[in-house]
Specification:
This protein is of the alpha+beta class. It has a domain of 191 residues: 4-Layer Sandwich (Glutamine Phosphoribosylpyrophosphate, subunit 1, domain 1). It is 41% helix and 18% strand. The strands form four sheets. Strands 4, 5, 6, 7, 8, 12 and 13 form a seven-stranded antiparallel beta sheet that branches.
Protein backbone atom coordinates (compact mmCIF):
# COMPACT_ATOMS: atom_id res chain seq x y z
CA UNK A 1 0.00 0.00 0.00
CA UNK A 2 0.99 3.64 -0.25
CA UNK A 3 1.75 4.42 3.35
CA UNK A 4 2.33 6.98 6.08
CA UNK A 5 4.27 6.52 9.31
CA UNK A 6 4.98 9.03 12.03
CA UNK A 7 5.74 9.81 15.66
CA UNK A 8 5.01 12.82 17.85
CA UNK A 9 6.34 12.93 21.41
CA UNK A 10 8.25 14.91 24.01
CA UNK A 11 11.56 13.55 22.69
CA UNK A 12 12.72 11.54 19.67
CA UNK A 13 15.75 9.42 20.53
CA UNK A 14 18.24 8.29 17.88
CA UNK A 15 17.43 4.68 18.86
CA UNK A 16 13.72 5.17 18.19
CA UNK A 17 14.39 6.87 14.89
CA UNK A 18 16.54 3.92 13.82
CA UNK A 19 13.68 1.57 14.68
CA UNK A 20 11.26 3.69 12.69
CA UNK A 21 13.46 3.81 9.62
CA UNK A 22 13.99 0.06 9.72
CA UNK A 23 10.23 -0.56 9.62
CA UNK A 24 9.33 0.83 6.25
CA UNK A 25 10.72 0.80 2.69
CA UNK A 26 12.64 3.71 1.24
CA UNK A 27 10.25 6.67 1.66
CA UNK A 28 9.25 9.17 -0.99
CA UNK A 29 9.42 11.82 1.72
CA UNK A 30 10.77 11.92 5.29
CA UNK A 31 11.58 14.53 7.91
CA UNK A 32 12.40 14.57 11.60
CA UNK A 33 13.03 16.93 14.48
CA UNK A 34 13.88 16.57 18.16
CA UNK A 35 10.24 15.61 18.88
CA UNK A 36 8.82 14.11 15.69
CA UNK A 37 9.40 11.72 12.80
CA UNK A 38 7.35 11.73 9.62
CA UNK A 39 7.61 9.57 6.46
CA UNK A 40 5.43 8.65 3.48
CA UNK A 41 5.95 6.36 0.51
CA UNK A 42 4.47 4.18 -2.18
CA UNK A 43 3.31 4.72 -5.73
CA UNK A 44 3.65 8.34 -6.92
CA UNK A 45 0.04 8.22 -8.14
CA UNK A 46 -1.25 7.46 -4.62
CA UNK A 47 1.33 9.23 -2.44
CA UNK A 48 1.55 13.03 -2.28
CA UNK A 49 3.63 15.22 0.02
CA UNK A 50 5.21 18.62 0.39
CA UNK A 51 5.95 21.61 2.62
CA UNK A 52 3.74 24.60 3.29
CA UNK A 53 6.69 27.00 3.12
CA UNK A 54 10.29 26.86 1.94
CA UNK A 55 11.21 28.77 5.09
CA UNK A 56 9.74 26.02 7.31
CA UNK A 57 10.33 22.73 5.44
CA UNK A 58 9.49 20.65 8.53
CA UNK A 59 5.94 22.02 8.54
CA UNK A 60 4.67 19.74 5.83
CA UNK A 61 1.88 17.45 4.74
CA UNK A 62 1.34 14.04 3.15
CA UNK A 63 -1.59 12.17 1.59
CA UNK A 64 -1.95 8.46 0.95
CA UNK A 65 -4.71 7.52 -1.48
CA UNK A 66 -6.72 9.31 -4.14
CA UNK A 67 -8.80 12.48 -3.99
CA UNK A 68 -11.44 13.05 -6.67
CA UNK A 69 -13.07 16.28 -7.78
CA UNK A 70 -16.21 15.84 -9.89
CA UNK A 71 -17.60 18.28 -12.42
CA UNK A 72 -20.71 17.90 -14.58
CA UNK A 73 -19.24 15.50 -17.13
CA UNK A 74 -15.81 14.52 -15.80
CA UNK A 75 -13.78 13.93 -12.69
CA UNK A 76 -10.16 14.63 -12.01
CA UNK A 77 -7.56 13.33 -9.58
CA UNK A 78 -6.22 15.83 -7.08
CA UNK A 79 -2.52 16.57 -7.52
CA UNK A 80 0.10 17.79 -5.05
CA UNK A 81 -0.76 21.47 -5.65
CA UNK A 82 -4.43 20.77 -4.89
CA UNK A 83 -3.62 18.94 -1.68
CA UNK A 84 -1.21 21.65 -0.55
CA UNK A 85 -3.88 24.30 -1.01
CA UNK A 86 -6.56 22.24 0.75
CA UNK A 87 -4.40 21.30 3.72
CA UNK A 88 -2.91 24.77 4.19
CA UNK A 89 -6.31 26.00 5.45
CA UNK A 90 -6.74 26.25 9.21
CA UNK A 91 -9.73 23.89 8.93
CA UNK A 92 -9.33 21.84 5.73
CA UNK A 93 -12.63 21.26 3.89
CA UNK A 94 -12.27 17.55 3.14
CA UNK A 95 -15.94 16.65 3.48
CA UNK A 96 -16.57 18.05 0.00
CA UNK A 97 -14.20 15.58 -1.63
CA UNK A 98 -14.83 12.21 -3.21
CA UNK A 99 -12.15 9.54 -3.23
CA UNK A 100 -10.33 7.60 -0.51
CA UNK A 101 -7.40 8.98 1.45
CA UNK A 102 -5.53 9.64 4.69
CA UNK A 103 -4.14 13.16 4.97
CA UNK A 104 -1.59 14.42 7.51
CA UNK A 105 -0.47 17.97 8.22
CA UNK A 106 2.32 18.93 10.61
CA UNK A 107 2.71 22.39 12.04
CA UNK A 108 4.83 23.37 15.01
CA UNK A 109 4.95 20.48 17.45
CA UNK A 110 1.53 19.12 16.52
CA UNK A 111 0.11 16.85 13.83
CA UNK A 112 -3.43 16.72 12.46
CA UNK A 113 -4.74 13.59 10.72
CA UNK A 114 -7.80 13.24 8.46
CA UNK A 115 -9.60 10.39 6.68
CA UNK A 116 -12.10 10.48 3.81
CA UNK A 117 -15.85 10.77 4.38
CA UNK A 118 -16.55 7.04 4.13
CA UNK A 119 -13.44 5.72 5.90
CA UNK A 120 -12.06 3.78 2.92
CA UNK A 121 -8.58 4.63 4.17
CA UNK A 122 -7.68 4.51 7.83
CA UNK A 123 -4.92 5.29 10.30
CA UNK A 124 -3.82 3.38 13.41
CA UNK A 125 -2.46 5.13 16.51
CA UNK A 126 -0.98 3.98 19.81
CA UNK A 127 1.04 5.44 22.71
CA UNK A 128 4.83 5.13 22.37
CA UNK A 129 7.70 6.65 24.37
CA UNK A 130 5.43 9.20 26.04
CA UNK A 131 4.00 10.28 22.68
CA UNK A 132 2.05 8.69 19.80
CA UNK A 133 3.02 6.64 16.78
CA UNK A 134 0.64 6.53 13.84
CA UNK A 135 0.59 4.63 10.57
CA UNK A 136 -1.57 3.28 7.79
CA UNK A 137 0.02 -0.11 8.58
CA UNK A 138 -1.09 -1.87 11.76
CA UNK A 139 1.68 -4.47 11.43
CA UNK A 140 4.35 -1.74 11.57
CA UNK A 141 2.86 -0.31 14.75
CA UNK A 142 2.65 -3.82 16.23
CA UNK A 143 6.34 -4.41 15.50
CA UNK A 144 7.29 -1.51 17.82
CA UNK A 145 5.24 -2.69 20.79
CA UNK A 146 6.54 -5.05 23.44
CA UNK A 147 3.31 -7.01 23.67
CA UNK A 148 0.28 -7.31 21.39
CA UNK A 149 -3.01 -8.91 22.32
CA UNK A 150 -5.98 -9.49 20.01
CA UNK A 151 -9.10 -7.62 21.10
CA UNK A 152 -11.69 -10.31 20.41
CA UNK A 153 -14.57 -8.11 21.52
CA UNK A 154 -13.65 -5.69 18.72
CA UNK A 155 -12.75 -8.13 15.96
CA UNK A 156 -15.51 -10.64 16.72
CA UNK A 157 -17.89 -8.98 14.28
CA UNK A 158 -15.32 -9.57 11.55
CA UNK A 159 -15.56 -13.30 12.25
CA UNK A 160 -19.14 -13.96 13.36
CA UNK A 161 -21.08 -11.65 11.01
CA UNK A 162 -20.61 -10.05 7.57
CA UNK A 163 -17.92 -7.62 8.69
CA UNK A 164 -16.84 -5.46 11.60
CA UNK A 165 -19.48 -2.93 12.64
CA UNK A 166 -17.42 -0.49 14.71
CA UNK A 167 -14.14 1.26 14.00
CA UNK A 168 -11.87 -0.15 16.68
CA UNK A 169 -8.47 -1.68 15.97
CA UNK A 170 -8.14 -5.43 16.44
CA UNK A 171 -5.28 -5.05 18.93
CA UNK A 172 -5.76 -3.82 22.48
CA UNK A 173 -4.47 -0.31 23.21
CA UNK A 174 -4.42 0.62 19.52
CA UNK A 175 -6.92 3.14 18.16
CA UNK A 176 -8.16 3.61 14.62
CA UNK A 177 -9.54 6.55 12.65
CA UNK A 178 -12.88 5.75 11.04
CA UNK A 179 -15.06 7.62 8.52
CA UNK A 180 -14.40 11.35 8.29
CA UNK A 181 -11.93 10.85 11.10
CA UNK A 182 -9.87 13.57 12.74
CA UNK A 183 -6.97 13.22 15.15
CA UNK A 184 -5.10 16.04 16.85
CA UNK A 185 -1.72 14.94 18.18
CA UNK A 186 0.58 16.92 20.46
CA UNK A 187 3.82 15.68 22.05
CA UNK A 188 1.88 14.52 25.11
CA UNK A 189 -1.71 13.87 23.99
CA UNK A 190 -3.90 12.41 21.25
CA UNK A 191 -7.55 13.33 20.59
CA UNK A 192 -9.60 11.34 18.04
CA UNK A 193 -13.11 11.60 16.66
CA UNK A 194 -15.13 10.11 13.78
CA UNK A 195 -18.12 11.74 12.11
CA UNK A 196 -20.28 9.16 10.36
CA UNK A 197 -21.55 9.93 6.86
CA UNK A 198 -25.18 10.96 6.46
CA UNK A 199 -26.92 11.71 3.14
CA UNK A 200 -27.40 15.38 2.40
CA UNK A 201 -31.15 16.07 2.75
CA UNK A 202 -30.82 19.17 0.54
CA UNK A 203 -29.06 17.38 -2.34
CA UNK A 204 -30.64 18.47 -5.62
CA UNK A 205 -27.95 17.76 -8.19
CA UNK A 206 -27.49 15.42 -11.13
CA UNK A 207 -29.16 12.03 -11.29
CA UNK A 208 -27.22 8.85 -10.55
CA UNK A 209 -26.45 7.93 -14.18
CA UNK A 210 -24.93 11.37 -14.85
CA UNK A 211 -22.81 11.19 -11.70
CA UNK A 212 -21.65 7.68 -12.58
CA UNK A 213 -20.71 8.82 -16.08
CA UNK A 214 -18.62 11.64 -14.62
CA UNK A 215 -16.72 9.15 -12.45
CA UNK A 216 -16.17 6.97 -15.53
CA UNK A 217 -14.63 9.89 -17.39
CA UNK A 218 -11.50 10.89 -15.44
CA UNK A 219 -9.12 13.44 -16.86
CA UNK A 220 -5.93 11.47 -17.59
CA UNK A 221 -2.57 12.03 -19.20
CA UNK A 222 -2.08 10.62 -22.67
CA UNK A 223 -0.13 7.59 -21.50
CA UNK A 224 -2.77 6.35 -19.04
CA UNK A 225 -5.99 4.50 -19.91
CA UNK A 226 -8.83 3.36 -17.69
CA UNK A 227 -9.54 -0.35 -17.30
CA UNK A 228 -12.83 -1.73 -15.99
CA UNK A 229 -12.88 -5.00 -14.08
CA UNK A 230 -15.70 -6.85 -15.85
CA UNK A 231 -17.20 -9.88 -14.11
CA UNK A 232 -20.46 -11.65 -14.90
CA UNK A 233 -22.38 -9.49 -12.43
CA UNK A 234 -24.84 -6.67 -12.97
CA UNK A 235 -22.76 -3.89 -11.39
CA UNK A 236 -19.72 -3.98 -13.67
CA UNK A 237 -22.00 -4.56 -16.68
CA UNK A 238 -23.84 -1.34 -15.86
CA UNK A 239 -20.54 0.53 -15.78
CA UNK A 240 -19.63 -1.02 -19.12
CA UNK A 241 -22.94 0.10 -20.65
CA UNK A 242 -22.24 3.67 -19.55
CA UNK A 243 -18.62 3.54 -20.74
CA UNK A 244 -19.53 2.15 -24.13
CA UNK A 245 -22.37 4.54 -24.97
CA UNK A 246 -21.03 6.58 -26.60
CA UNK A 247 -18.06 4.26 -26.88
CA UNK A 248 -14.81 5.69 -25.56
CA UNK A 249 -11.75 4.86 -27.62
CA UNK A 250 -9.45 4.77 -24.64
CA UNK A 251 -10.76 2.16 -22.22
CA UNK A 252 -9.94 -1.48 -21.59
CA UNK A 253 -11.52 -4.36 -19.73
CA UNK A 254 -9.76 -6.85 -17.47
CA UNK A 255 -10.68 -10.10 -15.76
CA UNK A 256 -8.85 -12.53 -13.45
CA UNK A 257 -9.31 -16.26 -12.85
CA UNK A 258 -9.49 -19.69 -14.45
CA UNK A 259 -11.23 -20.08 -17.81
CA UNK A 260 -13.95 -22.37 -16.37
CA UNK A 261 -15.16 -19.68 -13.95
CA UNK A 262 -18.55 -18.35 -15.22
CA UNK A 263 -17.46 -14.82 -14.34
CA UNK A 264 -14.43 -15.21 -16.59
CA UNK A 265 -16.35 -17.01 -19.34
CA UNK A 266 -19.12 -14.41 -19.57
CA UNK A 267 -16.69 -11.50 -19.32
CA UNK A 268 -14.50 -12.83 -22.12
CA UNK A 269 -17.53 -13.59 -24.29
CA UNK A 270 -18.74 -9.99 -23.97
CA UNK A 271 -15.29 -8.61 -24.79
CA UNK A 272 -14.91 -10.91 -27.78
CA UNK A 273 -18.40 -10.50 -29.26
CA UNK A 274 -18.64 -6.74 -28.71
CA UNK A 275 -15.04 -5.97 -29.78
CA UNK A 276 -13.71 -4.58 -26.51
CA UNK A 277 -10.01 -4.70 -25.65
CA UNK A 278 -9.50 -6.94 -22.62
CA UNK A 279 -6.55 -8.06 -20.49
CA UNK A 280 -6.99 -11.57 -19.11
CA UNK A 281 -4.78 -12.75 -16.24
CA UNK A 282 -4.52 -16.36 -15.08
CA UNK A 283 -0.93 -16.92 -14.04
CA UNK A 284 0.07 -20.41 -12.86
CA UNK A 285 0.42 -20.94 -9.13
CA UNK A 286 3.92 -20.43 -7.74
CA UNK A 287 5.71 -23.03 -5.62
CA UNK A 288 4.86 -23.67 -1.96
CA UNK A 289 7.08 -21.04 -0.27
CA UNK A 290 5.98 -18.35 -2.72
CA UNK A 291 2.34 -19.33 -2.20
CA UNK A 292 2.78 -18.84 1.54
CA UNK A 293 4.47 -15.49 0.96
CA UNK A 294 1.45 -14.41 -1.09
CA UNK A 295 -0.85 -15.45 1.76
CA UNK A 296 1.25 -13.62 4.34
CA UNK A 297 1.45 -10.38 2.38
CA UNK A 298 -2.28 -10.41 1.74
CA UNK A 299 -3.37 -11.30 5.29
CA UNK A 300 -1.08 -8.79 7.03
CA UNK A 301 -2.66 -5.88 5.12
CA UNK A 302 -6.33 -6.91 5.03
CA UNK A 303 -7.18 -7.82 8.65
CA UNK A 304 -8.61 -11.30 7.83
CA UNK A 305 -11.64 -9.80 6.04
CA UNK A 306 -11.49 -12.64 3.48
CA UNK A 307 -10.06 -16.18 3.33
CA UNK A 308 -6.50 -16.21 2.06
CA UNK A 309 -7.60 -17.89 -1.19
CA UNK A 310 -9.01 -14.49 -2.25
CA UNK A 311 -5.48 -13.43 -3.22
CA UNK A 312 -5.67 -15.84 -6.17
CA UNK A 313 -7.85 -13.35 -8.03
CA UNK A 314 -6.25 -10.23 -6.57
CA UNK A 315 -2.58 -10.82 -7.36
CA UNK A 316 -2.50 -9.22 -10.81
CA UNK A 317 -3.06 -5.53 -10.12
CA UNK A 318 0.61 -4.65 -10.32
CA UNK A 319 0.56 -6.00 -13.88
CA UNK A 320 -2.22 -3.57 -14.73
CA UNK A 321 -0.13 -0.78 -13.21
CA UNK A 322 2.78 -1.78 -15.43
CA UNK A 323 0.38 -1.56 -18.40
CA UNK A 324 -0.37 2.05 -17.33
CA UNK A 325 -3.98 1.36 -16.42
CA UNK A 326 -6.23 3.24 -14.01
CA UNK A 327 -8.45 0.54 -12.51
CA UNK A 328 -12.20 1.14 -12.20
CA UNK A 329 -13.85 -1.37 -9.88
CA UNK A 330 -17.57 -2.15 -9.64
CA UNK A 331 -17.33 -2.83 -5.91
CA UNK A 332 -20.25 -1.74 -3.67
CA UNK A 333 -22.64 -1.65 -6.61
CA UNK A 334 -25.13 -3.57 -4.46
CA UNK A 335 -25.92 -0.28 -2.75
CA UNK A 336 -27.84 0.79 -5.87
CA UNK A 337 -29.72 -2.53 -6.00
CA UNK A 338 -31.11 -2.57 -2.43
CA UNK A 339 -29.28 -5.85 -1.76
CA UNK A 340 -27.57 -5.37 1.59
CA UNK A 341 -29.00 -6.91 4.78
CA UNK A 342 -32.09 -8.31 3.07
CA UNK A 343 -32.25 -11.28 5.44
CA UNK A 344 -32.73 -8.85 8.31
CA UNK A 345 -35.28 -6.82 6.33
CA UNK A 346 -37.37 -9.76 5.10
CA UNK A 347 -37.08 -12.34 7.86
CA UNK A 348 -36.17 -10.27 10.88
CA UNK A 349 -38.44 -7.26 10.53
CA UNK A 350 -39.62 -7.32 14.14
CA UNK A 351 -36.02 -7.68 15.36
CA UNK A 352 -34.96 -4.79 13.13
CA UNK A 353 -37.63 -2.46 14.45
CA UNK A 354 -36.95 -3.47 18.05
CA UNK A 355 -33.32 -2.39 17.82
CA UNK A 356 -32.45 -5.20 20.25
CA UNK A 357 -28.88 -6.39 19.50
CA UNK A 358 -29.51 -9.97 20.73
CA UNK A 359 -32.54 -10.25 18.40
CA UNK A 360 -30.74 -8.70 15.42
CA UNK A 361 -27.57 -10.80 15.72
CA UNK A 362 -28.95 -14.12 14.32
CA UNK A 363 -29.94 -12.38 11.06
CA UNK A 364 -26.37 -11.14 10.56
CA UNK A 365 -24.63 -14.41 11.45
CA UNK A 366 -22.37 -16.06 8.88
CA UNK A 367 -20.58 -19.40 8.96
CA UNK A 368 -16.89 -19.40 9.80
CA UNK A 369 -14.95 -22.40 11.10
CA UNK A 370 -15.10 -22.56 14.93
CA UNK A 371 -11.32 -22.31 15.41
CA UNK A 372 -11.65 -20.53 18.77
CA UNK A 373 -12.47 -21.88 22.21
CA UNK A 374 -16.04 -21.26 23.51
CA UNK A 375 -14.92 -18.50 25.86
CA UNK A 376 -13.46 -16.51 22.97
CA UNK A 377 -16.53 -17.07 20.79
CA UNK A 378 -18.71 -15.81 23.63
CA UNK A 379 -16.49 -12.74 23.99
CA UNK A 380 -16.84 -12.15 20.25
CA UNK A 381 -20.62 -12.39 20.37
CA UNK A 382 -20.84 -9.96 23.27
CA UNK A 383 -18.65 -7.58 21.28
CA UNK A 384 -20.94 -7.89 18.25
CA UNK A 385 -23.99 -7.01 20.33
CA UNK A 386 -22.21 -4.04 21.90
CA UNK A 387 -21.23 -2.78 18.44
CA UNK A 388 -24.82 -3.15 17.18
CA UNK A 389 -26.05 -1.15 20.18
CA UNK A 390 -23.42 1.55 19.60
CA UNK A 391 -24.25 1.78 15.90
CA UNK A 392 -27.97 1.99 16.68
CA UNK A 393 -27.41 5.04 18.88
CA UNK A 394 -25.74 6.81 15.93
CA UNK A 395 -28.41 5.91 13.34
CA UNK A 396 -31.45 8.08 12.50
CA UNK A 397 -34.82 6.79 13.80
CA UNK A 398 -35.86 3.87 11.62
CA UNK A 399 -39.52 4.92 11.56
CA UNK A 400 -38.61 8.36 10.17
CA UNK A 401 -35.93 7.17 7.75
CA UNK A 402 -37.66 4.05 6.42
CA UNK A 403 -36.44 0.46 6.83
CA UNK A 404 -34.80 0.18 3.40
CA UNK A 405 -32.94 3.48 3.65
CA UNK A 406 -31.99 2.69 7.23
CA UNK A 407 -30.29 -0.55 6.11
CA UNK A 408 -28.62 1.20 3.16
CA UNK A 409 -27.11 3.73 5.56
CA UNK A 410 -26.10 0.90 7.91
CA UNK A 411 -24.23 -0.75 5.02
CA UNK A 412 -22.52 2.48 3.98
CA UNK A 413 -21.38 3.21 7.52
CA UNK A 414 -20.07 -0.27 8.25
CA UNK A 415 -19.19 -2.15 5.06
CA UNK A 416 -17.16 0.47 3.21
CA UNK A 417 -14.72 1.11 6.04
CA UNK A 418 -14.57 -2.49 7.24
CA UNK A 419 -15.15 -4.77 4.25
CA UNK A 420 -13.84 -2.68 1.35
CA UNK A 421 -11.42 -0.28 3.00
CA UNK A 422 -8.56 -2.63 3.87
CA UNK A 423 -8.43 -4.06 0.35
CA UNK A 424 -8.55 -0.54 -1.10
CA UNK A 425 -5.62 0.34 1.13
CA UNK A 426 -3.68 -2.68 -0.18
CA UNK A 427 -4.52 -1.78 -3.78
CA UNK A 428 -3.16 1.74 -3.35
CA UNK A 429 0.27 0.14 -3.19
CA UNK A 430 -0.38 -1.96 -6.31
CA UNK A 431 -2.06 0.39 -8.77
CA UNK A 432 -4.23 3.47 -9.18
CA UNK A 433 -7.82 2.33 -8.56
CA UNK A 434 -11.18 3.57 -7.32
CA UNK A 435 -14.83 2.48 -7.00
CA UNK A 436 -17.41 4.78 -8.67
CA UNK A 437 -20.20 3.28 -6.52
CA UNK A 438 -18.32 4.13 -3.31
CA UNK A 439 -18.31 7.91 -3.72
CA UNK A 440 -20.28 10.26 -1.44
CA UNK A 441 -21.56 12.22 -4.46
CA UNK A 442 -23.21 9.13 -5.92
CA UNK A 443 -24.56 7.95 -2.57
CA UNK A 444 -26.34 11.28 -2.14
CA UNK A 445 -27.98 10.69 -5.54
CA UNK A 446 -29.07 7.18 -4.61
CA UNK A 447 -30.85 8.33 -1.46
CA UNK A 448 -32.87 10.66 -3.70
CA UNK A 449 -33.78 7.70 -5.95
CA UNK A 450 -37.00 5.90 -5.06
CA UNK A 451 -36.49 2.61 -3.22
CA UNK A 452 -38.74 0.87 -5.77
CA UNK A 453 -36.34 1.92 -8.53
CA UNK A 454 -33.36 0.51 -6.64
CA UNK A 455 -34.95 -2.86 -5.82
CA UNK A 456 -34.25 -5.94 -7.96
CA UNK A 457 -31.58 -4.12 -9.96
CA UNK A 458 -34.30 -2.18 -11.80
CA UNK A 459 -32.17 0.97 -12.10
CA UNK A 460 -29.22 -0.96 -13.56
CA UNK A 461 -31.29 -3.04 -15.96
CA UNK A 462 -32.96 0.08 -17.24
CA UNK A 463 -29.60 1.78 -17.82
CA UNK A 464 -28.24 -1.25 -19.68
CA UNK A 465 -31.30 -1.49 -21.93
CA UNK A 466 -31.15 2.23 -22.66
CA UNK A 467 -27.42 2.59 -23.22
CA UNK A 468 -26.21 -0.77 -24.56
CA UNK A 469 -29.15 -3.14 -25.00
CA UNK A 470 -27.04 -5.94 -26.52
CA UNK A 471 -25.53 -6.52 -23.06
CA UNK A 472 -28.92 -7.84 -21.90
CA UNK A 473 -28.40 -10.90 -24.14
CA UNK A 474 -25.67 -12.28 -21.86
CA UNK A 475 -26.46 -14.29 -18.73
CA UNK A 476 -25.59 -12.93 -15.30
CA UNK A 477 -23.49 -14.82 -12.75
CA UNK A 478 -24.16 -15.39 -9.05
CA UNK A 479 -22.67 -17.93 -6.66
CA UNK A 480 -20.72 -19.79 -9.34
CA UNK A 481 -23.66 -20.28 -11.71
CA UNK A 482 -25.54 -18.34 -14.37
CA UNK A 483 -29.13 -17.07 -14.65
CA UNK A 484 -31.05 -15.10 -17.30
CA UNK A 485 -30.52 -11.34 -17.38
CA UNK A 486 -34.24 -10.57 -17.04
CA UNK A 487 -34.64 -12.45 -13.72
CA UNK A 488 -35.21 -10.20 -10.72
CA UNK A 489 -33.85 -11.01 -7.26
CA UNK A 490 -36.26 -13.74 -6.14
CA UNK A 491 -36.35 -15.74 -9.43
CA UNK A 492 -32.56 -15.43 -9.69
CA UNK A 493 -32.18 -16.77 -6.14
CA UNK A 494 -34.51 -19.71 -6.83
CA UNK A 495 -32.82 -20.49 -10.16
CA UNK A 496 -29.28 -20.50 -8.76
CA UNK A 497 -30.37 -22.49 -5.70
CA UNK A 498 -31.89 -25.16 -7.96
CA UNK A 499 -28.76 -25.32 -10.12
CA UNK A 500 -26.66 -25.66 -6.98
CA UNK A 501 -28.76 -28.62 -5.80
CA UNK A 502 -28.33 -30.22 -9.23
CA UNK A 503 -24.55 -29.79 -9.01
CA UNK A 504 -24.47 -27.25 -11.84
CA UNK A 505 -22.22 -24.73 -10.11
CA UNK A 506 -18.58 -23.90 -10.66
CA UNK A 507 -16.05 -24.94 -8.03
CA UNK A 508 -12.67 -23.26 -8.25
CA UNK A 509 -10.14 -26.09 -8.07
CA UNK A 510 -7.28 -23.60 -7.75
CA UNK A 511 -8.36 -22.89 -4.16
CA UNK A 512 -7.67 -26.55 -3.37
CA UNK A 513 -4.57 -26.68 -5.55
CA UNK A 514 -3.19 -23.68 -3.65
CA UNK A 515 -3.24 -25.68 -0.41
CA UNK A 516 -1.64 -28.71 -2.06
CA UNK A 517 1.14 -26.51 -3.42
CA UNK A 518 1.73 -25.34 0.14
CA UNK A 519 1.13 -28.68 1.88
CA UNK A 520 4.49 -28.83 3.65
CA UNK A 521 4.27 -25.24 4.83
CA UNK A 522 0.65 -25.51 6.04
CA UNK A 523 1.28 -28.76 7.91
CA UNK A 524 4.41 -27.33 9.50
CA UNK A 525 2.39 -24.32 10.53
CA UNK A 526 -0.43 -26.29 12.15
CA UNK A 527 2.10 -28.39 14.07
CA UNK A 528 4.17 -25.42 15.22
CA UNK A 529 4.38 -24.45 18.88
CA UNK A 530 2.95 -20.94 18.35
CA UNK A 531 -0.25 -22.52 16.99
CA UNK A 532 -0.40 -25.34 19.53
CA UNK A 533 0.11 -22.98 22.45
CA UNK A 534 -2.12 -20.09 21.39
CA UNK A 535 -4.70 -20.06 24.20
CA UNK A 536 -7.55 -18.65 22.09
CA UNK A 537 -7.46 -21.57 19.64
CA UNK A 538 -9.47 -24.77 19.74
CA UNK A 539 -6.33 -26.55 18.63
CA UNK A 540 -7.77 -30.08 18.33
CA UNK A 541 -10.38 -28.75 15.91
CA UNK A 542 -7.80 -26.90 13.79
CA UNK A 543 -5.44 -29.88 13.62
CA UNK A 544 -8.29 -32.23 12.74
CA UNK A 545 -9.59 -29.85 10.05
CA UNK A 546 -6.20 -29.61 8.34
CA UNK A 547 -5.52 -33.34 8.60
CA UNK A 548 -8.94 -34.19 7.12
CA UNK A 549 -8.33 -31.84 4.21
CA UNK A 550 -5.01 -33.45 3.33
CA UNK A 551 -6.60 -36.91 3.67
CA UNK A 552 -8.98 -35.99 0.87
CA UNK A 553 -11.86 -34.00 2.37
CA UNK A 554 -11.32 -31.13 -0.06
CA UNK A 555 -14.65 -29.52 0.87
CA UNK A 556 -12.78 -28.20 3.93
CA UNK A 557 -10.52 -26.01 1.76
CA UNK A 558 -12.48 -22.81 2.48
CA UNK A 559 -12.32 -23.45 6.25
CA UNK A 560 -8.57 -24.01 6.10
CA UNK A 561 -8.14 -20.76 4.16
CA UNK A 562 -10.17 -18.88 6.79
CA UNK A 563 -7.95 -20.22 9.56
CA UNK A 564 -4.83 -19.31 7.56
CA UNK A 565 -6.17 -15.79 7.12
CA UNK A 566 -6.43 -15.25 10.87
CA UNK A 567 -3.18 -17.06 11.67
CA UNK A 568 -1.15 -15.15 9.07
CA UNK A 569 -2.54 -11.86 10.34
CA UNK A 570 -1.89 -12.83 13.97
CA UNK A 571 1.74 -13.58 13.19
CA UNK A 572 2.13 -10.37 11.21
CA UNK A 573 0.98 -8.27 14.18
CA UNK A 574 2.93 -10.45 16.66
CA UNK A 575 -0.17 -11.18 18.76
Amino acid sequence: MSWIFGFVGPHLSSESMSHFQALHPEPNFASHSSTAYFAAGGLPETCFYGSFSSKQPDEGWAVSGIGLERSVQKCRFLNAADWRQILSAASPQLRRLDGHFVAIKRRGQGVECFTDQLGLRTLFLTPFDGGTIFSTRLDWIAALRRQNEVDFAVCGSNWLIFNQIGYGAFLKNVRRLGPNGFASLSPTSARLRNTLWTPDPDYNGQDSSEVLEAFLNPVTSGELAISLGLSGGLDSRTLLALLASPKRADFYLHVFGVTEDPDVRISRAIARDENFLQDYFNDPLPDGPKCMQLLQDYARQTQFIEPTSTILKLRHYSQLYNCKRIVIDGGFGEIARRQFLNRLLLKGKSALHSGDPASIYPYLRVQRPPIFIPEVLQMMRQGVEEQIASLWREMPPIHDFGSENFLELWAIRTRLANAYGFEQSRLDGECMSYMPFAQPSLLNCLFKTAVAMRKNGRLFRQLIRQRFPRLARYSLVKGGTTYPFYFSTVPAWAWTKLKTRLGQTFTDASVIEFLYHSATEVQDLVNSNPVKSYPAYDYPFIRSMVEKFYRGQTALAAQVHWWLSFEMWRRAVKA
